[in-house]
Design goal:
- The structure is a single chain.
- By secondary structure, the chain is mainly alpha-helical.
- Helix content is 71%, strand content 8%.
- It is built from 8 helices and 3 strands.
- Helix 1 crosses helix 3 (41-53) and helix 2 packs across helix 3 (41-53).
């Protein structure tokens, strides 16, 4: 699946929940899907224009000047189901923290420790935010709520895995410190 198809899937999916402006769509993607998906304004607005030309979405009356609300059409719903049925495209992760840790000897132990501790703090904050979203979903009786919950659960598991990794990584770094300290305090013969 091409990247543009994935953007169209995210846009059509967002509009399948409710009509909204391009700005609101970007905010929803950031807030609701942000733990596993991102789209920029530079991706969303061209996708909206393409989808409108194709008749998959339609522009509704503007609530205020310069702001158009878009709604998915029946053809757009059909296209969304087609896109969702395609196999997900595997994506190689790009993790700047792990890249730096891989070359950690060059970076230094303390800088590596700070990276891991920052990662742990971010995972704790993410887990807390996801728990809040889950609590909100408990009272949501909308038809999308159980499916959204599936992604929240995945985010919670991922955050807990990051926490476990960070704690284990700090143990490894402590071992490096211990080995360095033992080596430097050894009495030469």
């Amino acid at each position: 699946m091409a990247a543009s198809d994935q953007t169209q899937m995210a846009v059509l999916g967002g509009l399948s929940i409710a009509p909204m402006t391009g700005y609101a769509l970007r905010e929803q993607i950031r807030d609701a899907l942000g733990q596993f998906w991102a789209e920029s304004f530079g991706q969303i607005y061209p996708a909206l224009a393409t989808l409108e030309r194709q008749g998959l979405i339609e522009r509704q009356a503007a609530l205020r000047a310069g702001s158009s609300t878009f709604a998915i059409t029946p053809q757009g719903s059909a296209r969304l189901r087609e896109l969702l049925a395609e196999a997900p495209q595997p994506v190689k992760p790009r993790n700047g923290v792990l890249l730096r840790l891989f070359f950690g000897r060059q970076l230094g132990e303390e800088a590596c420790r700070r990276l891991v501790m920052n990662t742990r703090a971010k995972a704790e904050a993410e887990l807390s935010g996801l728990r809040d979203i889950r609590a909100e979903l408990q009272s949501d009786t909308g038809p999308d709520a159980p499916y959204i919950l599936l992604t929240v659960l995945a985010g919670e598991h991922s955050a807990r895995a990051s926490l476990a990794w960070a704690n284990e990584a700090l143990g490894v770094l402590d071992g490096i410190s211990g080995a360095s300290a033992a080596g430097s305090s050894a009495v030469p013969r």
